[in-house]
Amino acid sequence: MAFWNKQRKQKKETSPPKVIDVSIQDIRKAISSFAEDKRDGISLKILVLEDNLVDHSLLTSYLGGIPSEHFYMSKETFELFESKDKHIPFWIDKMQRAVDTYIRTEEELPIIEGDPYQKISFYKLEKKAMLQERPPIEFYLSEQEQMVSHRKPEK
Q1: Which residues touch 72 (CB under 8 Å, ≥6 apart)?
Q2: What angle do CA 43, 104, 139 make, to 5 degrees?
Q3: What's phi and psi for 20, nearest 5 deg?
Q4: pTM summary value
Q5: What is the pLDDT of residues 16-32, one digit of tens each?
Q6: Contact assessment for residue 100 and residue 145, using Cβ atoms and an 8 Å cutoff
């Protein structure tokens, strides 16, 4: 009988995590801590749900609760976004996959010829059937590891 009462008591003490207000910087820190603690071979992609929503339940112990706002992350670049920009990680992922495929098959960068910012050419990707729909924003190719970015580089 004592065992049963002890189990019931433990269940009562385990309350659901509280909802807390956090900043995007707080989420970045939690993700960084999660990355340091995770086992080798586990990708950060585990934190990103199908719709690019960050799985906050995996970060609860780092944050001390569940965020009151949703955050979104690119599975390809791991860039983090607030709810107001939740469409951006979807397009980053789509563009990164298209760019990677283009580079692999065409052995050149899919950028607009002569563009000093390395703006990605939607036309080149469409022409090779690697992009079926144009994104609502422009994308650029970073000089580091050919990563897609929605941020225009400074020149």
Answers
A1: 51, 52, 53, 54, 80, 81, 82, 83, 85, 86, 88, 89
A2: 75
A3: -130, 155
A4: 0.83
A5: 889 999 999 999 999 99
A6: no
